[in-house]
Amino acid sequence: MMVHSYKDLIVWQRSVELVVAVYELTEKFPKEEIYGLVSQMRRAAVSIPSNIAEGRLRGTRKDFSQYLRIAYSSGAELETQVVIAKALPKMKNLNYLKVDSLLEETMKMLNVMIRGLNPKS
Predict the structure, then answer these.
(1) Per-domain residue ranges for the chain?
(2) Which of 12, 22, 28, 103 could bond to 45 as cystine, CB 3.0-4.6 Å?
(3) pLDDT tens per residue across span 2-11
């Protein structure tokens, strides 16, 4: 399949699904977390597909690789925030399966893409 747009990239599609899952999950967080973990997790999640899209449209392999690394870093940030949320008493009993699964899939795809664009690394 020929990739004409960032929207054709499976990693972008999955990362958008991840954003939706993060929003759905964080809606269940306590209201006092609205400016804490809720805000941080949502921003980190939104950053992933945003950077994939921006990097894809930059036009060069080097730029695309750099933006994929930024997306990957945002994924690591989100991963850390999920670990923290799971450890907090008011949020530890929520269902994190969908977020965990989509985040793991997205991170693996980003890793493969980054390595493919930078075969020397």
Answers:
(1) 9-117
(2) 22
(3) 567 899 999 9
Q: What is the pTM of this model?
A: 0.94
For residues 15 and 106, the answer to whether their CB atoms sit within 8 Å is: yes
Is there a contact between 63 and 30 (Cβ–Cβ < 8 Å)? no
Whether 37 contacts 45, CB under 8 Å: no
Q: How far apart are CA 108 and CA 104, in angstroms?
A: 6
- Please answer whether residues 71 and 15 qualify as being in contact, where contact means their C-beta atoms are separated by less than 8 angstroms: yes
Q: Place domain 9-117 in its CATH homologous superfamily.
A: 23S rRNA-intervening sequence (1.20.1440.60)
Distance CA 45, CA 96 (A): 14
Q: In this predicted structure, what is the pLDDT of residue 118?
A: 83
How does DSSP classify residue 28?
A: T
Pairwise CA distance, residues 105 & 14, whole Å: 8
79-101, pLDDT tens digit by residue? Answer: 999 999 999 999 999 999 999 99
